Amino acid sequence: MQCNIDARGKAIRLLSGLCCLVAGLLTLVFGGLEGVPVIVGACLLIGGGFMAFEGWSGWCVVRAMGFKTPV
Description:
73% helix; 0% strand; 3 helices
């Protein structure tokens, strides 16, 4: 995997990934009280983990497929 995003893109992906991870954990912990399905929390954790990986490694899967992203 070759780095295909700049420092700004790395920061945005890492921060959004960490936010999704926190939201996923909160959804799993408090989801039963609000009626939010567990699958939503699991999807947030998986997606957030992948976004954090993209930010940490500097590799974006969408850019690797040839799409141009604004960040």
